[in-house]
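Changelog excerpt

This revision adds worked examples to the README so contributors can see how folded entries look when concatenated. The first example is reproduced verbatim below.
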Amino acid sequence: MHGPAVVSWLLATLTSAAALFCLARLRTPAAQRGGTGWAGRESDAAEALMGIGMAVMALPVSRGGGVPAAACVVLFSGVGAWFLAAALRGGGARHRAHRLHHAVGSGAMVYMALPMATDATGGPQHAGHVPAAEGPLLLTGLLLLYFGSYAVWTGSRLLATAPGDVVAVTGGAQLLRAPGMPQACRVVMGVGMFVMLLDG
């Protein structure tokens, strides 16, 4: 990210918190996390990984590119390919949609990390084989539209949560069971991705 350091640190903090929540849900028995099965764990694992990657990329110390950015390119290329292949293999419509969303998110991470990685080596962005503006700007615009819409849609679902369904948090187990928490994490991820794309 190229914006003010305070924005970068705030984004890194929020995405790290969302990632830690997802990791905590992964370690929690299904009965204590709302009864979600393998699909829920798969989604939590993907969102935890995404949150950690976004936090690393958002940190001001990562602006020089190098190893963190190159690692993000390799890691999220593999993750995106896996989710895309898994979505194409079948499953329920909702599960397929989640997997496609994670594939798009992984692709966006690669899209943002690639210039950071090549900045450190003077690589592909100087080769002149990519049109100067049209391709990247179009793709950035489409990704901004997607993640902006996703954040608004997920936020509207969070606001629509019935007051009686919101758990009064008195302990960690109740927090993990709160119906609105997964949506809250997804709002953080969607907004974070939107901000990083806009700033990049």
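The second example, added in the same revision:
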Amino acid sequence: MRHAFGFVLGVLLTPALLYGAAWGYVQAGQSFDGTGQEITDRTRIYGAFALLAAVGLVMGVVIVARWASPLVSLVPALALLGLTAWFLVEPGRVLDLPGKVPPAGDMDAGLRMLLGSGLYAMMGLALLMPSWAPRRWSSDRDDDADMDFYSAMDRDDRRADRRMR
């Protein structure tokens, strides 16, 4: 059941990461003047950076969370890496794809730029890492290594207490 929920969550997370990063990128790019070296719209750039930070935070939680099924990160990772591989094989067809998927407009430019810059490949590789940890696939909640660590710490604490007396 944990992996079924993880798969569904991964499917929902994929477009959220794609569109969140693309929209944040576009909004950030429209809010400053690179040649004049000044921010033209502070509210927009703060919102864009907040969205990009939220995308990074969600990715970080998904990567680090031991309670989450590895499918939560594996599904978006495979989608992002697959999209990047497809881009390397047939760039014309892949760059045409954002125009066919809603919403149209500035978002299309963001999707194309992040795909062409390799950022989606980087995100995909980062999200792929948790699926390599064997303990993420098991449903056993008691991790023997953690239990050994904490029991060793308790022993060290007791020794230190005896020395202080």
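Reviewer comment on example two: DSSP finds eight helices and two strands in the chain. The two ends are 52 Å apart (CA to CA).
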